[in-house]
Amino acid sequence: MKIHRKKIEIKSTAQIEFLDITEKVNEVVADSGIREGQVTIYSPHTTASVMINHNETMLLQDFMRTLYKLVPISDRYSHDLFELNREKASDGRSNGHSHCKAILLSASENIPIEKGHMILSPTQSVFVVEMDGARTRDIVVQVMGL
User: Fold this and answer.
1) Which of 16, 65, 74, 105 has the smallest count of CB within 10 Å of its CB?
2) pTM over 0.85
3) Which is higher by pLDDT, 74 or 108?
4) Phi, psi for residue 19 in degrees, rounded to 5
5) How many CA atoms within 13 Å lie on the side-chain side of 89?
């Protein structure tokens, strides 16, 4: 079994953003030389997730609206008070809502590889979901197989 791992850098420009990384993941899979196996896409961040869904503009707006509705920014989050009151330096973000949004999604996705390609339907894309942007994130892509 062979393992190939690479970090890909993602730059968000909005507080909540769905960033299609399918092509970047395809490049890592191709570079790995692995023909049969699986690829794991992992976000090592507590306010950014990974998901698979359809890349359609109106649907992405629906996802965003749903996240804002389920976890409104205007709610009171204990985490925000902690950030303001802790002795350690803070980045100044009141982002309790971002952490709460992230628990609704996954930190990773695992996709089978067949004949050197991810098995995704024509309507599926791989996204990083930024919930505390704008930021630069490193996403781990690990390909395993033969």
Assistant:
1) 74
2) yes
3) 108
4) -105, 115
5) 1
